[in-house]
Structure formats: C-alpha cells, structure tokens
C-alpha cells in the first residue's frame, strides 16, 4: 500500500475489520454499504476522500480490502472578543455660568420675585423704590456634588440707602417676605449703616472702610477648606469642613411696609466650576 503524505490519515481499525469480513463473506456490495454508513457517522463535511485497496487483486481470492478514510481536521471555534462595557455614570454638573448676556434671565435657571431686574451691556442691574426689591435665586443646585470647586462673582454697588441688599451662597432659599439668614454659608451685604462686608457662616471676614461703590471680584474656593478672596487677595481660610452649599440668591426677599429707595447694585457674572 502506497504511503499518503499529503493528507492526515486517520486509521479506523474497526472499519477495516468489518470491511474484510464483508469482503470475504458478503461481497463488494456489502463493502460499499459499510463505507457509506461509516462516512455518514463521522460527518461527511470532514471527509476528504476514501481509499479502497484490494489484496492481492480485486479478481483474486481470498480478497483483503483495506479502506482508509482521509479526513480534514475539525475547525476549532474561534473565540470572539467581548469587550467589557463600563456603565457611564449620570453626568454630575461640573460648571455653572451666568454672564448676563441675554436680554432676559433663563427661566430654566432662575426664579424671579419682585420687580424685574434690568439687563444691559452684559450686566444685571437691581434697583427699586417700592416696598419690595428684586429677589432672584437658582432653581437647581448649581454646585458640583463632589470634589473641589470655586465660585466667582463680579459685582459693584451703584447707590447706598438704609435698605440693604446683597449676594448669598447658602443651603436654604428664604421665603418671599422673610429676612435673609445672617448665618448663611457666605454672603456680601451693604447699606448706609453697614459698609460693604463679607460674612462666612455668621462671622464677618471682610469689611470695607466705608461705603464702597467700586467694582470687586469675590471668589470662594473649596479644597477641603474654604478660602475667600477679594480682588485676588486671600482674606479668610476656614478650618476643614465637609458641608457644601446648594443654592445662590441675590437681592432682598423682604417686604417692607412703605415705598422707599433701596440700595442698588449690579452683577457682571457668576461662575461656578469644578477644580482638580
């Protein structure tokens, strides 16, 4: 029997014995039936060819028939790479900005009570000669839920009277008609009896020498402690604090019994951003 070098030969001794027996006792037809049955058993898709060899010759007896079934290797399943999908967390606000460039305040950001404020030349201007003053506060928490952050506001008072007004960072939104919380998180305030002053949790940390009509930038910076800057100058550093603010309001929520002139002021921008 010639040696086959190309394909891989798989010996099937049980098939050979069966075919030899059938060749001797059953004849060629029985041999063909046996081979067909075996091919069906081993899966036709893997069979390349069937080699039938007769010894000594097909016309001589006794006949010995050797059948070799040459098969191709079964294909191995290829693993499919399945990437791990990391759920994307819901976005957390990392910045809040109000530049007052639009002709009106965004109704989705701000709630407005009292006389409408004026918006002009990229500024918001609050004034009143009535018994109430404009009172404006954020509808949603503008501060990042975690991590370090800063708040920066640019402001200037235009006129001073006995009725004070200011800008407040806190965790509580005062009701219309009530007074502001003197223990608020952070605020600046001014009237004819109180020079421009900045308070942190009830403690005054900055005071001007008198009535102040100059432009200023107030910056509150949090990195585990609260640092307060006025015009880039550090004026206060708190002890370590976990508490975080959740709202901003400005103006005055109070309602007085008579009409009169209020202190007036303007804001250029309010910016809140996350920090590394």
Counted up, domains total 2
Q: Give the CATH level 1 class of the largest domain.
A: Mainly Beta
Tally of helical runs: 2
- Structural class determined from secondary elements: mainly beta
What summary fits the major beta sheet? 8 strands, antiparallel
Identify the quaternary structure here: single chain
CATH architecture of the largest domain: Sandwich
Helix content: under 10%
Overall pLDDT, averaged?
Answer: 80
Number of strands: 17
Cα(first) to Cα(last) distance is 81 Å
Question: Could you list some keywords that capture this structure?
Answer:
2 domains, Jelly Rolls, mainly beta, 276 residues
What does the model show?
It is globular, with a radius of gyration of 45 Å. The N terminus is likely disordered. It folds into two domains: 59 residues, no CATH class; 181 residues, Jelly Rolls. The longest helix has 14 residues. With 276 residues, the chain is mainly β.
Element layout with pairings:
Layout: H1 13-25, H2 28-41, E1 47-55, E2 64-71, E3 95-98, E4 110-113, E5 118-120, E6 123-126, E7 135-138, E8 148-159, E9 165-170, E10 186-190, E11 197-200, E12 203-207, E13 215-222, E14 226-230, E15 233-237, E16 247-251, E17 264-275
Antiparallel strand pairs: 1-2, 3-17, 4-7, 5-6, 6-17, 7-16, 8-13, 8-17, 9-10, 9-16, 10-11, 11-12, 13-14, 14-15
